[in-house]
Design a protein that fits this description.
Chain lengths: ~210, ~525
């Protein structure tokens, strides 16, 4: 399987529940990888793999909440859908506050789980696309020369060509050439777009 | 002999005075029974004058029944002419008093051995007879009293050795009764209290019987009956004596009191037993209550699996993308999960149901394995892990399985609760079994918890003592009384590594139990 084809990781200490969820996912054509413990999952988890995680909140040794913390620590962005028993609602709410996509009480309607899983997969895809965009942008930014980057900073700071030429002690004409190069290299169609791109590269979004 | 003169027999002067000195009343009759002489003492005895006594006058003081007999002794027609006769007569004196007189009648013979008359020497034995009669009556009364005491003692002894068995007291008292009646050999007895009915072997309904009601709390509860199998002379009450009436009344009253006491004690024991069983049940339900969310979770798992399987199947069926073999396999899995849920409910019902104590040979390991699921679910809910270390091939114990499971669950619950401040990875409960002191089965439950404070040690097994926020505080005390009732012991020790506590209890193996019985 290629990393781009989504895979649904399922972790639950109850093998019957695990098996049933796998079957349900298969019924809508989703691939699932099932694990009976958090440790088993961590041993097999590939952060590059697109998809999401369906996670039982209450498990022996390492609970779902602890696994979520471990994934955060690793910088993994995989969206998590928690499945919970009724008594675990407060814990589930906490999990959502810590960034989980949602929680579904057991037993659940199949559509509810599938909707959340699809949503999580979409979110993951979006994350991955955004990451890819950012990487491309960074590559373009890296391709600028030192002088071009100086001109870009002053442009983004809102200074006119004349002021830039004076500050850099170059001709106004030269500023215009640099500026055209920057627009071209960054593939910006307008000044506002160039400003946005530059801000993104300088302050990458926190996960 | 000579004619009837006052001093007829006295031929010798001075003899008259001498005769009056003899403390005997004398009367002399001729061959026809006519009085020819009587001494002064005889006259004083009867109240007759000498003159009145003469002829047949002396007969008048005798009661009519005795007159003929007396005359017969004194006449020549009497066949007793050779020897002395002794008899007792009743004399009705002129002073209108009845006297009892013992008489020696001596025939008087002349030289040719011809009967000439009789000399009768009389002694007033009224007082003596009266005192003898009184003595006889006293002796009789004592004998009756003795029999009564014997009977009462017998009952007391029976009560003492019966071990509180009313049946035994009634049976032995029934057999005790006849020997206290006048004719033990023909006496039968029967005692009835409610549905208890005891009879002597010889018992039958006879016309000659007496009975006394047995009252319990003022209400008729039965009776004591004593009867003669044969007719006997009429006494105070039919053939029975007054003391026998007193005795039968006494026995009936006493049995009433004994029965009342025993029945009341039995009822109290029953009530106590019922209370104990209710408290045991309450404690079990309370433990289950504490485990409610674990149980809900435990039940939720198979239900989730069933629902999810079914919904997945429906989708796969609609899309037609499923092999028949797989379909069947999934259906089997659905059924298995439904049965798993059913088993949890069944087991729970078994644990919560109110029921009579029932002991049978059972395996401690199997009992523990049976509740492992439940206990593990509870442990998991508190981020603790349950480990079992069951020794193989333990002897069976004679026990009420549900109650032993109650004890185990209670200990595991306490162990889990004691580890609230322990880091989750270290929250471990270990349940182990093994042999202890020969053939006693030992169960130990150890935790990694906070341990027990020194000043709580004595309180731990007290009812309504608790260190928890929830719960009744009866769990440990009930557990201990369950174990004690099974002939086992319960105690606790701090763990050797200083971390947490181990609670232990023992149960005698069914073999040892039988030996003890």
């Amino acid at each position: 399987m290629t990393p781009n084809e989504p895979l649904v990781y399922v972790v639950d200490d109850d093998v019957a529940v695990l098996d049933a969820i796998r079957l349900l996912l298969r019924s809508v054509g989703l691939q699932a990888a099932t694990y009976a413990s958090a440790a088993d999952f961590l041993g097999a988890f590939d952060p590059e793999q697109a998809g999401c995680l369906v996670l039982d909140i209450r498990m022996p040794v390492m609970s779902g909440i602890e696994l979520q913390e471990r994934l955060h620590g690793m910088g993994a962005m995989i969206p998590i859908v928690f499945v919970t028993a009724h008594g675990d609602i407060p814990m589930a709410v906490q999990a959502v506050k810590s960034g989980a996509l949602d929680f579904i009480p057991k037993p659940f309607r199949d559509q509810d789980l599938l909707d959340r899983v699809q949503e999580a997969i979409g979110l993951d895809r979006q994350h991955r696309e955004e990451l890819a965009d950012l990487a491309a942008l960074e590559r373009r930014y890296e391709s600028l020369t030192a002088r071009e980057r100086e001109v870009l900073e002053l442009v983004v700071a809102g200074k006119a060509n004349k002021v830039i030429a004076a500050e850099l002690e170059i001709s106004q004409r030269t500023v215009e050439i640099h500026r055209g190069r920057v627009m071209e290299k960054m593939r910006a169609r307008s000044l506002p777009q160039l400003v946005r791109m530059t801000l993104r590269v300088r302050t990458p979004p926190t996960p | 002999m000579a004619p009837t003169t006052r001093n007829a027999p006295t031929a010798t002067p001075g003899l008259d005075a001498l005769i009056e000195l003899v403390p005997v009343a004398l009367i002399h009759t001729d061959r026809t029974g006519e009085c020819v002489w009587a001494n002064e003492r005889w006259c004083r005895l009867t109240g007759l004058s000498h003159e009145e006594a003469l002829g047949y006058g002396w007969l008048e003081v005798l009661v009519p029944l005795d007159r003929e007999r007396a005359l017969a002794y004194h006449s020549s027609a009497s066949h007793i002419t050779e020897v002395e006769v002794r008899d007792v007569f009743q004399v009705h004196t002129r002073a209108n008093r009845m006297r009892l007189v013992a008489s020696n009648i001596v025939p008087l013979l002349d030289d040719r051995r011809t009967l000439t008359g009789h000399l009768c020497a009389c002694v007033d034995i009224t007082e003596r007879e009266q005192s003898e009669q009184a003595l006889r009556a006293l002796t009789h009364a004592y004998r009756e009293r003795l029999k009564e005491l014997d009977c009462q003692y017998g009952i007391s002894h029976t009560v003492e050795v019966s071990g509180g068995s009313l049946e035994r007291i009634l049976r032995e008292t029934t057999d005790l009764l006849p020997r206290s009646w006048e004719y033990p050999d023909i006496t039968c007895a029967r005692i009835v209290i409610y549905d208890l009915d005891y009879r002597t072997a010889s018992y039958r309904v006879t016309p000659w019987r007496q009975s006394a009601p047995i009252l319990i709390q003022g209400r008729s509860a039965g009776y004591v009956e004593v009867g003669y199998l044969e007719e006997r002379p009429v006494k105070d009450e039919g053939p029975f004596l007054a003391p026998e009436r007193r005795l039968i009344d006494n026995v009936a009253e006493r049995l009433g009191r004994i029965a009342e006491r025993l029945i009341t004690a039995e009822r109290l024991r029953d009530q106590e037993q019922q209370l104990r069983e209710r408290l045991t049940h309450l404690s079990r339900v309370s433990t289950m209550g504490e485990m409610a969310s674990s149980l809900a979770h435990e039940l939720n798992q198979p239900l989730t699996a069933v629902a999810t399987y079914a919904q997945a199947l429906r989708r796969l069926a609609v899309s037609g993308s499923m092999e028949e073999a797989e379909l069947l396999s999934v259906l089997d899995r659905i059924a298995a999960e439904a049965i798993r849920a059913g088993n949890i409910v069944h087991h729970l019902k078994e644990l919560v149901r109110r029921r009579e104590t029932r002991r049978e040979p059972c395996s401690v390991n199997a009992l523990i394995s049976d509740v492992e699921h439940l206990a593990a679910a509870d442990a998991r809910l508190h981020d603790a892990q349950l480990h079992l270390e069951l020794a193989p091939e333990l002897p069976a114990v004679h026990a009420d399985g549900i109650q032993i499971q109650q004890v185990v669950l209670n200990l595991i619950r306490n162990a889990v609760d004691s580890m609230e401040d322990t880091a989750p990875p270290e929250r471990r409960v270990l349940v182990s079994t093994g042999l202890h002191e020969g053939d006693t089965v030992l169960v130990a439950v150890s935790d990694q918890g906070c341990g027990t404070l020194e000043d709580q040690r004595d309180l731990l097994f007290q009812p309504f003592f608790t260190t928890k926020q929830t719960g009744l505080g009866v769990g440990l005390s009930i557990s201990k009384s369950i174990v004690t009732a099974h002939g086992g012991r319960m105690w606790f020790t701090p763990n050797p590594d200083g971390r947490g506590t181990t609670f232990c209890f023992t149960l005698p193996s069914s073999g040892a139990q039988h030996d003890a019985e």
